[in-house]
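U., I forgot to send this yesterday:
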Amino acid sequence: MEYREYSPPVDLQGVVACLWERMSTGGQQLIVPDGCIDLIWLAERELVIAGPDTGPRTVWLPAGSRSSGLRLRPGAAGGFLGRPASEVRNCQVNADDVFG
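Result:
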């Protein structure tokens, strides 16, 4: 698995912690909680909102799949999502379910 992080544009640094991408070798991937919410283009097939997690969890990704994300800073998600971050705590939801 290859993982890379990038600095966000200067005008987003107050809200966005980083941009990232991951190329999966396939199988279960461990996600470690970091207190942040991520907007993820998951395996090039769907847009999801993940976290914040209160404990580790695993996700399955097919080999060769690429995921890209935008990690929001702790406390920034409420304004971005238009709802409390607690509504997506410990889960991963389709972005359409949040944004319509």
